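Minutes, project check-in

Agenda point 3 was the complex the collaborators sent over. CS summarized: four entities, 652 residues total, and the question is how they sit relative to each other. Sequences were read into the notes so everyone works from the same version.
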Amino acid sequence: MPTINDVARKCGVSTRTVSRVLNDRPNVRPEVRQRVLAAADQLGYRPDPNARALKSGRKQVVGIVANSVSSDTTLHRIEVISKLFATSGYAVLMQFAESPEMEEAAIHSIAPRCDGLVIFSNLHSAHAPALLWLDSRHIPFVVVDPPVDITFPAVHIDRRSGYREGVRYLVQKGRRELLLVVESFRASERIAGFMEGLEREGLRFRSSRIIHSAKGFKGGADAAPQVLELIKQEHIDGILCHNDKIALGLLGALQKQGIAIPEQLSLIGFDDDGYDAYINPALTTIAQTGGDVGAFIYEQLKNAIEYGTAIESKTFGTGLVLRASA
Amino acid sequence: MPTINDVARKCGVSTRTVSRVLNDRPNVRPEVRQRVLAAADQLGYRPDPNARALKSGRKQVVGIVANSVSSDTTLHRIEVISKLFATSGYAVLMQFAESPEMEEAAIHSIAPRCDGLVIFSNLHSAHAPALLWLDSRHIPFVVVDPPVDITFPAVHIDRRSGYREGVRYLVQKGRRELLLVVESFRASERIAGFMEGLEREGLRFRSSRIIHSAKGFKGGADAAPQVLELIKQEHIDGILCHNDKIALGLLGALQKQGIAIPEQLSLIGFDDDGYDAYINPALTTIAQTGGDVGAFIYEQLKNAIEYGTAIESKTFGTGLVLRASA
DNA sequence: TTGTATGCGTTATCAA
DNA sequence: TTGATAACGCATACAA
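CS then shared the predicted structure for the full assembly.
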């Protein structure tokens, strides 16, 4: 591996001059610049990023810490962030964490190698020590969709309003006996929206109208018997689901039992997964609105890193995407 | 940010001793070891990974280069690899590339920061300079699912046998007029398998029996009119698709036109996406077999990095996952 | 416009 | 068992 010294020697200049050329600094004669560039190219010289980082502190890397139970949405956002940062010459250092403790450890392990951090967080405390630590080290970071309110720069997704809107829409369609099917993790915002929606429509909330399901397609399918029972006993005619996977799992299982959707029952998911428009009936869903979360994070974090600007928090809304199932 | 010197000073030993303690080296009195550990902890000391990498060459990072058009499968494999490496204390440095040229650039930019590399490749040449360069630098790497044969350690997915098997299965079910719907990218292996399958079953191949569609659900749906035409004219009764998204898009569109699946027409996808079992009819598909690709890569690469073992190439098979659509 | 020399925070050689 | 000290490859203050 050739070093900057090799390049300097090869064309009879000092390392200082080579450094100038390589970092696009002024005060180098064009002729010398050419010579250095040629020598570097010829030797296949590449600056050592570690040495550079050690000296200058700039690493050209952004870190991403994500919780282990990352959804397709999270994966997609990570992809967007990575691609955008790639266009600015940054690579992305990623570490998954299974638990809040591991998440803190991951932050500590990744931060020293990064110019900035994106944290898809499960940290359940608003005062996570790792975040305080980052802050004290002046490492810019964005927390994405934390389950609790947080005083640090963060992107929030307002699911509550989406579920509220879902309820309103169903009621407007003449549905009165509504049900909410949620996974155990991150149910509270959905439940709050559901309850608020009922209240605003003047409908009474009953705790029996919240069903807890396991995760994913299978969770939805497995919840079907219980849902079916409620349909019979309480004449459920509208269902809001934790996400589209739950909705699809449930949809198929209910259809097999002869439930007509949307005629007899309206069904609404969450996330706007790619398949929504192509299943039968196409799935009405609630989706994040207000632009691309990944793009927003990129803008904020990049400016914070390169110009020291403050990162502004933002709340993205959610809204109905109307299709056939409701 | 406290350094190793601060720790050394704080407990009155030399940096050498602190270094010994921190790297679990022998020849330190237990009492001193305790003292050092306590001091480090108290100062919140964390070794600088850049300085460490600069000196020792070990970076505790594996790199992933992925092409921009990465499928869900790729994303999932990346996730698996990241999580496994996280359990061994490695973070993952990721860079997406839009083109083969950018892919080479990404390799060059990432490699110096990594102990090893995973390359989800679109490199269309078997002798990509970047790979030769990696090899000459003795940086272990695995190429995943390259579109061409390659002499470097690689994981191959044998799609051809899967499509062959698909044809055989359809014929066995009494289907004779088969159609293949492929995207433009990476169609050749599928076409080869399709043609081989037909040949083995003694069926004649006609070029009209290959339809090119755009990407994704929409591509499948948009191909429907053309497919419908063929169904009418040539009495198509079995379709193999590029992947499950194409299959689902096509499925819905055909159903809307009154085609009964699987009664009138058998439909087979590829990938075994999560929703396959939950749509109606559940989608029969072709899936990669032989274990988890990500886990295999982790094993190989980790051993190569830590013990210098050679990485062995492996070909993963593909096989039918029978459900209702065929 | 260019060069010399120092130090970033580690690891590791050598001597004690 | 320990310590002084020299690199690792680069960026930059300062001198020329």
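Noted in discussion: DSSP finds 13 helices and twelve strands in chain B.
Follow-up: revisit at the next meeting once the mutant set is ready.
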